[in-house]
């Protein structure tokens, strides 16, 4: 019955691949098998040459850091994240979370994580978008690692303009943080902080500074993509 409904639904509203727009088959979600195989995976390269972790050297202490894909201005990764953020395609986050979640279980650097939290978005933006675009992603990562996910450990107090539009040094931006620690967390917790795309690392560094108010906290980072 379920299968019959799925096929009927697909005939009426065909679900197409976000990479090539070809109609997806049974068992395929977000992308077709061909597009999946062509994605620019970063997670394995980063084990040896960790360009994500390097972004935080001399800024904030980070235990481990990784990203699933390389971000390119044009391409399937860009179009998936665009659909997730602006087209109410929240299930993209779920698919990416399952994929990276599996990879994290294969990496010893992530086996002491206790808690997964998202970089927060401002309430105004959450209302217009309908969700925080990294929530599903974070929930899947937490599920794979067998740990808790908590949405509101950090909150965003001000709705800031896009970081890229500000003509200030990273250091100045980071001291003027819109993020605030909102919940009490046990001392010594190893937190995995998650976001969509990491570019300069400014947003994440600001969140890390706030989390450092937790005694003996350890912080690791995981994102959907890294722009290098
Ligand atoms: Zn495709």
CATH classification, class level of the largest domain: Alpha Beta
Which percent band covers the strand fraction?
A: 15-25%
Helicity level = 25-40%
Count of extended strands: 7
> If strands are numbered along the chain, what order do they take across the biggest sheet?
1-7-6-2-3
Structural class: alpha/beta
Number of helices: 9
Radius of gyration: 18 Å
Mean pLDDT: 91
Give the cofactors and ligands. Answer: zinc ion
Count of separate structural domains: 2
Identify the overall geometry.
Answer: globular
Low-confidence stretches: none
**CATH-defined fold name of the largest domain:** Rossmann fold
N- to C-terminal separation? 47 Å
Order of helices and strands: HHHEHHEHHEEHEEHE
Biggest β-sheet: count, sense, barrel?
Answer: 5 strands, parallel
CATH architecture name of the largest domain = 3-Layer(aba) Sandwich
Please explain how this structure is put together.
The structure is a single chain. This protein is 35% helix and 16% strand. The protein has helices at residues 2-12, 33-37, 51-54, 76-86, 91-105, 123-129, 135-145, 170-175, 202-211, and strands spanning 65-70, 115-118, 148-149, 154-156, 179-181, 190-198, 218-226. Helix 5 runs parallel beside helix 7. With 228 residues, the protein is of the alpha/beta class. The chain has 9 helices and 7 strands. The strands form 2 sheets. A 5-stranded parallel β-sheet has the order 1-7-6-2-3, with helices on both faces. A two-stranded antiparallel ribbon has the order 4-5. Zinc ion (ZN) binds next to helix 2. Zinc ion (ZN) binds at residues 17, 19-20, 22, 31-32, 34-35.
């Amino acid at each position: 019955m379920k299968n019959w409904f799925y096929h009927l639904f697909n005939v009426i509203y065909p679900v197409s691949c976000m990479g090539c727009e070809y109609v997806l088959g049974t068992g395929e979600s977000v992308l077709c098998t061909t597009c999946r195989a062509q994605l620019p995976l970063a997670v394995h390269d980063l084990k040896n040459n960790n360009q994500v972790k390097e972004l935080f050297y001399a800024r904030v202490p980070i235990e481990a850091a990784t990203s699933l894909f390389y971000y390119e201005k044009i391409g399937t990764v860009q179009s998936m994240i665009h659909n997730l953020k602006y087209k109410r395609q929240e299930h993209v986050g779920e698919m990416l979370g399952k994929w990276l979640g599996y990879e994290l279980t294969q990496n010893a650097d992530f086996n002491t994580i206790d808690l997964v939290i998202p970089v927060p978005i401002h309430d105004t933006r959450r209302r217009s978008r309908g969700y925080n675009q990294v929530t599903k992603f974070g929930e899947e990562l937490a599920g794979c690692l067998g740990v808790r996910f908590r949405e509101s450990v950090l909150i965003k107090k001000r709705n800031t303009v896009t970081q890229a539009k500000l003509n200030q040094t990273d250091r100045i931006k980071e001291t003027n943080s819109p993020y605030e620690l909102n919940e009490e967390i046990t001392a010594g917790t190893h937190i995995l902080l998650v976001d969509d795309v990491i570019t300069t690392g400014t947003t994440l560094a600001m969140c890390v500074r706030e989390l450092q108010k937790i005694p003996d906290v350890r912080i690791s980072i995981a994102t959907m993509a890294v722009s290098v």
